[in-house]
């Protein structure tokens, strides 16, 4: 009996060592996969133009169910996207960088949030944040959520899979519109086309009904002469 217990203990010890070795290999594989994912995604992002990268980030927010407005400005004051969900509005700054993002960029973005009276911001970069930048984002208000290359790669991999970085977007990003509507906006879509057809029919009916009156008026003028 003692010999059997000794053999069982030895077998369990060997099994435990195998499990530990497998766990280490699995952890190493996951770490290698994450590093390769970040490198691959970063290369794809850097092939996009700054505007394409902003639109791509907007598409990720859309997948979370957010309404997205792309500012489309060169001097955007630190705001590339405006996102809204469930009545709460947030600002997004996108930096397609290779160098680390410092604390000054975080402060500038917070200033834009204060001007826009928004209490939630997202700072997204293809590089990383310095320690001072992270402290700036964490220790002061309003709240700024940081997405560096590693965090963004993981998020985009979960949402997009192999389709990441090819500059195709789930649906058009909403863009800022000036007050009022252009004719092209009024007559776009199903209801717009129906309105246009209705106006044409109304014009045709008016012409048909008004033609006899116009002919009679012309005739009366001729007789009066």
CATH topology type of the domain at 46-175: Trna Endonuclease, Chain: A, domain 1
Q: Residue-averaged pLDDT, rounded?
A: 74
Oligomeric description of these chains: single chain
Strands, count? 6
Q: Strand count, sense and closure of the main sheet?
A: 6 strands, mixed
N- to C-terminal distance: 137 Å
Q: Into which percent range does the helicity of residues fall?
A: 55-70%
Overall geometry comes to elongated
Strand order of the largest sheet: 5-4-3-2-1-6
Output the structural class.
Answer: alpha/beta
Label this structure with key terms.
225 residues, alpha/beta, Trna Endonuclease, Chain: A, domain 1, 6-stranded mixed sheet, 7 helices
Give an overview in words.
With 225 residues, this protein is of the alpha/beta class. It has helices at 2-46, 50-63, 103-116, 131-139, 149-160, 183-186, 189-224; strands at residues 67-70, 81-85, 88-95, 120-125, 143-147, 174-175. Among the domains are: 46-175, Trna Endonuclease, Chain: A, domain 1 (3-Layer(aba) Sandwich), CATH 3.40.1350.10; 182-206, no CATH class. The longest helix is centred in the N-terminal third of the chain and has 45 residues, at 2-46. Mean pLDDT is 74; it is low at 161-173 and 175-190.
